[in-house]
Write a structure and sequence with these properties.
Helices cover 27% and strands 18% of the residues. The protein is α+β, with helices and mostly antiparallel strands. The protein has a domain at 32-131: 2-Layer Sandwich (Ribosomal Protein S5, domain 2), CATH 3.30.230.10.
């Protein structure tokens, strides 16, 4: 019996190809070192190492509370956005070590690290994290300084005479 009538004249017309299996993972919680799930986030020159575990909603960054470490509201909102999108802010404890860069870069790195850890913690949260854009790495970096210029694009002042 011919599997595909439209391509009956092709040499492989009678061969039935295996259907690809969907890449959907079952909802299982991954266990990692010491009961923590890890996620790494980077932004500009900042690197955040994030550990999450089931808990009461505690969030510590460099052994300080969130509002003690980040004072600007947009940075605080940036950090808790993946937790709010997945509705897990009161059921997961988050511990973060972040270094390098400035405040905004660090908040972006923490956001990506939390999102990656949540993805490893429960694969059913993946669609809501993807829809919010929390799993996308922002690859913009500072452009390097070029020789013969005072900066990346800025040139020395030109004198006609």
């Amino acid at each position: 019996m011919i599997e595909n009538a439209a391509n009956a004249n092709t040499p492989m017309a009678g061969i039935k190809l295996p259907t690809p299996t969907p890449a959907v993972q079952t909802a299982k919680k991954a266990e990692s070192k010491g009961g923590f799930i890890w996620g790494t986030g980077r932004r500009k020159t900042s690197v955040a190492r994030v550990r999450i575990r089931p808990g009461k909603g505690e969030l510590k960054i460099n052994n300080r509370k969130l509002d003690e470490y980040f004072t600007r509201p947009q940075d605080i909102n940036n950090v808790v956005a993946p937790l709010k999108a997945t509705k897990t802010e009161s059921s997961i404890d988050v511990f973060v070590n972040v270094n390098g860069g400035g405040i905004t870069g660090q908040s972006g790195a923490v956001m990506l690290g939390i999102a990656r850890a949540l993805k490893n913690y429960d694969p059913t949260l993946l669609p809501s994290l993807r829809d919010g854009g929390y799993l996308t790495r922002d690859g913009r970096m500072v452009e390097r300084k070029k020789p013969g210029q005072s900066g990346a694009r800025r040139r020395f002042q030109f004198s006609k005479r």
